[in-house]
Design brief:
It contains 8 helices and 12 strands. It is an alpha+beta fold. The protein folds into 2 domains: 3-104, no CATH class; 112-314, Jelly Rolls (Sandwich), CATH 2.60.120.260.
Amino acid sequence: MAMTDETHLSEMLTRYVAGDCTPQEVRELSAQLEHDAEACDLLAEILTQGVAAREYAQIHSEAVRKTGRMWPPWLGWLSWRPLSAAAAALVLGLFCVSVAWAYVAPSLAKAITLLQEGFESGPAPLVVGVPTEAGRWSGDYSEIVGEQQGIQPADGGKMLRFLRGDSEGKSIPLSHSSDVFHLVDLRPIRSEFADGGAVVQLTALFNAVSFPADESFSATLTIFALDGSVVTDGTVKVDNVLSTESLAFSRSSKVLMDRDPATWQKVRNELRLPSDTDYLMIRLGMSNDTKLPDKRRDSFVGHFADKVQLVIARRPEISAP
């Protein structure tokens, strides 16, 4: 690419980020990127360098939270432009995604955030059981709330509140756990962990109002690695299929709730990904472990979760002695 052409492209990209490009200029830019690898390189460089680190982190986290997918940094930025620019960003993403991934996630050398959820915005969780669509919370009855019963959100002004041990159209009076799920699409980065060298780590904070000494509650996190067919044919909606049909799964140790509303308790879980993983299903679970006879255990209105984070990174396997 000649220097004058590179200068012209740089100027056009700068004006595009500012929202000043004409529709004709956007079309010309898209056409050039379709066949010009050097232009794609310049695009990735300019757009990633042109966004302040803190501003990009906020944009990227919100994009991941809403979609359940990781986005290249320049695509995350463009998707926040006006509607016409968002459409153009999709075109740019199709042409330059390989370049962007080489830039942002070279063999997962560093931990990359797949999901960061503080429940500050977005739609309320669905209450129809296990989700079959990435990017939306669903499960047993729950809601997003602000301060409740003396409990402040761990961060920000919102948190997830568990309500019951059943979901819409499925009454389970004997249930003693309330579960909320989120489906994450890993197909865009599947090539990055095809050798089985990647590990995902899930963390979340849990809290509960003070409860009687003869009652007991615990929180758990579960990660399921799923083949795409299990998700797309609706199989995940069948009871117990997550554990029986998953490629691999991991459940954290139970963390007993401490009866102190002033403290948020951290739960952590990890899973090494099978190379053919298409999706991750994560589960936030609150269990009523009370052993009192004749006492229903399916109500969880005083129990909460916040600050959910799912990250992926490359980690060597333990060498056998």
